[in-house]
Design goal:
single chain, 456 residues, alpha+beta, five-stranded antiparallel beta sheet, four-stranded antiparallel beta sheet, 52% helix, elongated
């Protein structure tokens, strides 16, 4: 049974165990157009208030992070949501246990999470019902959360929305959704996450620096300032932690090292293939050549360009091996990750091919009757020029920039019509080498050689 189906069944069973009506269950989609499933939300109706239990799948570092999250709202103010921690800050302020479950990637782990959640809710639901029935306490809690939402956005957005008229509902809905996502993120990555890991000092520093704190974080700050320590994670919370989950999915530091190792090992044979293709194409496209300039210099760049396809192949190998691991869940979002990897592979291979032809076409080839050249930075083709159309060849030492001489030896062919062909830059050209190897050859072609200080 897939995780989303199993989660839905557990949500229905939770309703039975809590002795409430069966929840309404809705599928979450990450893209309205493609309708890619990325989770489930089960809504429970307790009369004066509602509880939403989410199972959200998000792409994270090449893997998928599955999060179980509880959210509450009162019937009187459905747009003002509270996290499980915000509720605990009122109903059980001494409870600093972790109820954030990430990387819930097996049916067994879902079951264990629901056992912990059920145990918590059996105490929390009656307490929250009392708050909901007491208008004063309920309104006080709602008002506090409104203040927190306004503080998060840095303005009184709730009060100001009444002046927005027709746009108010849409804008507020977007802002409340943003706040909802933030609530999840701070317990996965923020100060509370540091606290749950036992990093109390770092959590305290982070809380003190924070421009915004939730109701729970205010409570946590006081607790830490009084020397409070993080309770030990339950076995379920520990198994469903970011560290353990990323290790299972191979997206932790060890997984990154594996990809790096694959890349390094693949770069060597790919570089050899690129060099062999380059040499073959360079000499194949320069038949009847006398001199080819730029062969050695281009060889320096080819290993660099072979790295991209090496990374792409390494990622394919890594994820293929991971997919064979029966202990790792392959979620519904996997096709999306495969598509991203597919296009990255195509891009990497395309860049390597373009780089290969660029290196081939950046060489200068002096043949018996003509020479092949390109004046572009990233050439994909070369132009042929007959020696009979050349007046002289100028070996230029460099150029002047802001009154100062910059050494940049290159050659410029000047045609009899007065146009110039700047074919060789300092990356591939040595003045002495060019003079020694080609001066005699060019003179035989009745081409005069001139030495010039700057292109000016």
């Amino acid at each position: 049974m897939d995780l989303l189906t199993y989660f839905s069944n557990m949500c229905r069973q939770l309703g039975v165990n809590l002795k409430t009506e069966s929840p309404s269950i809705k599928t979450l989609v990450s893209n309205k157009k493609n309708k890619n499933k990325n989770g489930i939300v089960a809504r429970y109706n307790f009369g004066e208030f509602f509880m939403d239990v989410y199972y959200i799948e998000n792409i994270k570092g090449g893997g998928v992070q599955q999060v179980i999250w509880l959210s509450f709202f009162f019937d009187r103010e459905p747009s003002i949501t509270f996290s499980i921690y915000d509720i605990l800050s009122v109903t059980d302020p001494e409870n600093f246990n972790c109820y954030t479950y990430s990387f819930v990637d097996s049916n067994e782990l879902i079951k264990n999470c629901f056992q912990e959640i059920e145990e918590l809710l059996k105490t929390l639901i009656p307490q929250l019902s009392q708050i909901a029935e007491n208008g004063v306490e309920r309104n006080k809690l709602i008002e506090k959360q409104k203040q927190k939402i306004n503080a998060y956005f840095g303005d009184n957005i709730i009060e100001a929305s009444q002046f927005l008229k027709d746009s108010a509902d849409k804008i507020l809905s977007m802002m409340f959704y943003n706040f909802f996502q933030y609530q999840i993120d701070i317990y996965l990555l923020g100060s509370p996450a540091l606290f749950f890991k036992g990093k109390e000092e770092k959590a305290l520093k982070s809380l003190k620096k924070a421009k915004y704190r939730s109701l729970y974080e205010d409570n946590l700050l006081t607790y830490l300032e009084n020397g409070g320590k993080a309770p030990a994670l339950s076995q379920t919370a520990n198994t469903a932690s970011t560290e353990k989950g990323s290790a299972r999915q191979g997206t932790d530091a060890k997984g990154s090292l594996k990809i790096l190792l694959y890349t390094l090992l693949l770069t060597i044979p790919l570089s050899a293939v690129m060099i062999a293709l380059f040499l073959g194409l360079a000499y194949l496209t320069a038949t009847d050549n006398i001199f080819i300039y730029g062969i050695k210099e281009n060889l320096i760049f080819l290993p660099f360009f072979s790295t991209l396809p090496a990374v792409a192949i390494a990622l394919n190998i890594f994820f293929r091996k991971k997919a064979k691991n029966k202990d790792v869940h392959i979620p519904a979002l996997q096709p999306k990750a495969k598509t991203v990897l597919k296009y990255f592979t195509i891009l990497a291979e395309s860049v390597a091919i373009i780089a290969l032809f660029t290196c081939v076409n950046s060489t200068l080839v002096l043949r018996n009757n003509d020479f092949l050249y390109s004046t572009e930075d990233f050439p994909l083709s070369r132009t042929s020029c007959q020696y009979s159309s050349i007046d002289y060849a100028a070996i230029v030492e460099g150029y002047t920039y802001k009154g100062e001489f910059q050494e940049d030896p290159h050659i410029v062919f000047v045609t009899k019509s007065g146009t110039t062909i700047d074919v060789y830059n300092s990356t591939f050209f040595s003045t002495n080498k060019f003079k020694q190897e080609t001066e005699t050859f060019l003179k035989e072609k009745d081409i005069q050689i001139k030495e010039i200080k700057t292109i000016d």
